[in-house]
């Protein structure tokens, strides 16, 4: 049985830092980021808990592949990707999940 996956982008309240991650359970993973379950992590250190982009995939391998590609993108490309579906930079965790 294949397991789906999700690639996501978090930022801080000032939209100055990006974190790109992948998970098979976005809702649970976001709760971990919001609660700072891992206090020494990048997202806790830079207060990245605002979900501004996510994309679901049929299997986790596709999501991992996209995560690796996104991490190589320059900042402007990431901003355009976010603003295509989320021009107001809303926290999609509170809006959609």
UniProtKB/TrEMBL annotation:
Pfam families: GIY-YIG (PF01541). Residues 3-80 form the GIY-YIG domain. PROSITE patterns: GIY_YIG. SMART domains: GIYc (SM00465). Belongs to the UPF0213 family. This is GIY-YIG nuclease family protein. It comes from Pedobacter boryungensis.
